[in-house]
Amino acid sequence: MAEYLAIHPDNPQPRLIGHAAEVLRNDGLIVYPTDSSYALGCALSNKSGAERIMRIREADRHHRLTLVCPDLSAIGFYARPDNWAYRLLRTLTPGPYTMILKATREVPARLRHKRRKTVGIRVPDNPICQALLTELDAPVLSSTLIMPGDDLPLNQPAEILDLLGDKVDLIIDGGLCPAEPTTVLDLTGAAPVLLRTGRGPVESFLL
Prior knowledge:
By secondary structure, the chain is an alpha/beta fold.
């Protein structure tokens, strides 16, 4: 049965954050809160964890997992945004956006789009998530916690425990999250392309 950690949503307890990071380092699969919804996450090197995420989501081989990073500098390690895209990233991070960017060689080949060599990256604006990423000092490989057949993500920790208590190693209860996926933007071309409308507004920069 999964561990269940109640962490303060605004002032995360360092001891609990440290424990959650250790679960990730030991190849655990966790559920954690973000600024858009709860998410499934594992360490970037955890291939079996990525496979567990795909099984829970019942996702096919075309489903791409996202690198959740602590800040803009971390994005630069895993992706190569053009100058205009970098300027846009500065305005959108942290926030409820997933950006499709050209991947660097630091991204494992299994996580890059086979033909386009791209990767999805995001920087959530959530205190628990930010504290966890800082403690881990590495990105978390993630997917929005939407169960097969559902239209919206799960956002109630007690329900998540009931559904996934035997499928993950740790569930972080950070209180209620928004129940809306991120806005997904393709930033690999000459201008942003909206791939999915979600929680992040686009009116200010998308023509």
